[in-house]
Amino acid sequence: MRNVVYALLPVCAFSVWLFGVSALALIVTAAAASVLTEHLFSKLANRPSSVKDFSVVITGLLLALTLPPGFPLWMTAVGGFIAVALGKMLFGGLGFNIFNPALVGRAFLQAAFPVAITSYTPAMARDRFSEFIPTTLALPFMQPAALTEWIARVRVDAFSGATPLMQQKFDHVTTEILPLFLGKVSGSAGETSALLILLCGAYLIARNFMDWRIPAAMLLSAFLAGGAFHLASPAQYPNPFFVLFSGGLMLGALFMATDMVASPVTPLGVWIYGALMGLVTVIIRFLGGLPEGVMYAILLGNAVSPMIDNLTQPRVFGTRKKAEAKS
Amino acid sequence: MLNGRRFSRGVHPPESKEQTSHLPIRRLPFAPVLIVPLSQHTGAPAVAIVREGQEVVRGEPIAKAGGFVSVPMHAPATGRIEKIALAPSARGDLAKAVYLKPYPSASQEILYGAPQDIEQMTPEQIVHAVQETGVVGLGGAAFPTHIKMKVPEGKKVDTVLVNGCECEPYLTTDHRVMVEQAGEVLHGARIAMKALDARRAIVGVEDNKPDAVEALRTAIGAATDITVEAVPTRYPQGAEKMLIQALFGREVPSGGLPGDIGVAVFNVATLAQIGDLLPRHQGLIERVVTITGPALSKPGNYLTALGTPLRWALEQAGCTDEAASVILGGPMMGSAIGTLDVPITKGVTGILVLARRDVKNHRPIHPCIRCGACVDVCPLYLNPSRLGMLARKERYEEMETEFHLNDCFECGCCSYVCPSRIPLVQYFRISKQMNRERKARERAHSNA
């Protein structure tokens, strides 16, 4: 598990470079809240603390990376607590969670704080290393500061607060593919750089810590589904590369859909699971009310993964004849 | 040419055979006391036909077969029967055994037996004669060989498959037997062909033993009834179902036997013993055992009298005080034993003595994270992850009816790759035993 943490560190570092101290505080808060929650629940259950297996650190980091960089820290801490408590420890800890814990936390935050979680700030803001985004330090249960003025003050030309997905959905402005791929755009703290996420994922795949089939299936299916929409109506829907490199798809496909606990184990099952998530992502993005659909797509995939497993049990050695005879 | 291909899945653990693969077979001296268990094979135990204090000659029968699925035992040395009593077995329980005290001057020459002409024998006579030799599967399963030499009812066997894969790491007994006793192997194969009325024999050897392939091909010469095939080195290539898949591209039906697709599989060492013993009408009294491992100063391939206690064998092989764990068989399918008073039996292929630095006991078992690594290596396409979870919930019956537990031949690939160190194959052994006990109870209940 430690290797997954190592693989996420470059993504975190890029996030800090892009969004400044706020992103750093966000990541540290989410990780600390998650780790403390796991420790607390281990103690409550009279079990040895399971913090040392590092899986909870991954949860904390992933949660932070999916949040807007200026997300209030107290909400982040609530999210970390919910992710680990509700998403993992109540089910029995590592190995028993039905859903990806980080996404459980994020889904809770999305429902509880719909404004804060859609308040994005521009990348590469002025003074980002010396000054927090105003919303970051909002006090618990207080109205976070309005961002419009602050954004107007710090924003550097060519960087807007709206994420590429929002611009696409609401303003029909499609961001260029290259900056999108490299990641110097507005967005959630760690989701912007498709390139960096791909490299980090490739490291894990090369070290055999990750099942390459799930991201491959998910990205391929999102690409094909996006391509189909684009071909049907090029004016209305962006090209499939935009689908691939925007929003949380890359981070979700490589680091969250691959959560082994909540994904199928059968060789055919992982392909179906990945393909389903890619398709649902595109459907939510293009046909739903939200600009982004990766989170719900993965949660849905998690929910049906036991069923996929049951339906795709491997054909046992020496049973081919019987199956053929039956059909 | 055969439509061969690799079997799918499996693993490739470090082979670790270099310690003994080049060492010629050497004899081990007799231990002060030999312990010959009456049940060294699958099936009914043998029935002792000697009494305490009786003198026996090396090779003389000391127990008769307890039925058709059973084999006789022979005296491994000239000496006196000390007692017939319970002795510890590798499984951990006590089993009835004949204690034999060899005479100090006993020679290793075999004095018992009379030549017989195999050419004149009918298949039935060969099956009977093979049973009399007491030979069982020497690859580890210890299934009585004569039963496999009888053509199954209503079937036809056209191919004798000689299994020389020896895919278990560390073990080199079959390797040395093929190199040094290629003639006996082929002779045994031809006896099996005659008994089964098979038209051809194929020897499958993993390609990490080129000298064995060479020795066999030289011994075959111009003959065309037997061929040698090198198969890729991959564990568990030596499982008969995997070997058949690799050579013929066919799968033995689930729950079935190789006989269902016209093949009979024998281990090379088994056939070498038959090729050696049958013409002289002698019984199985010794076998080659690889005694190896990092904690030995004199590892080797030792021709060992059956009944030799492990303690004696390990002393002869130079066991050092580094020894931490003694495993009967190979590291993948063998089992660690708790006492050195266990004797070497017909099914013991090797003794592996691991040093302290190699043994990591007491490492915690983590929960299954459903990574699917076990599913990706299971050569029989089972779902060890699911089976393991069911075993933890004690849902043994479901494991058998829904998830093909009984197809598992316990190769241990799943345990080997599990990142959470879940002892999956051990779970499955226990589960199978629980199912057997439950069925026995149900039978007893319905009879009552």
Structure description:
Chain A has 327 residues and is mainly alpha-helical. Chain A has 15 helices and no strands. Chain A is 59% helix and 0% strand. With 448 residues, chain B is α/β, with parallel strands linked by helices. Among the domains of chain B are: 118-280, Rossmann fold (3-Layer(aba) Sandwich), CATH 3.40.50; 373-447, no CATH class. Chain B starts with 25 loop residues before the first strand and ends with a helix. In chain B, strands 1-14-13-17-15-16 form a six-stranded mixed β-sheet, with helices on both faces. A four-stranded antiparallel β-sheet of chain B has the order 2-8-7-4, with no helix packed on it. Chain B has a four-stranded parallel β-sheet with strand order 11-10-9-12, sandwiched between helices. In chain B, strand 13 (286-292) and strand 14 (300-305) form a beta hairpin. Chain B has helices at 123-133, 145-148, 173-180, 182-196, 210-220, 240-248, 268-277, 310-316, 373-377, 384-392, 396-403, 413-417, 424-447; strands at 26-27, 34-37, 47-48, 55-56, 61-64, 73-74, 79-88, 94-102, 159-164, 200-206, 226-231, 263-267, 286-292, 300-305, 323-328, 335-336, 350-355. Chain A binds chain B through residues 53, 92-96, 211, 260-267, 270, 309, 313-322, and chain B through 241, 251-256, 366-372, 375-376, 378-383, 385-386, 403-404, 407, 420.
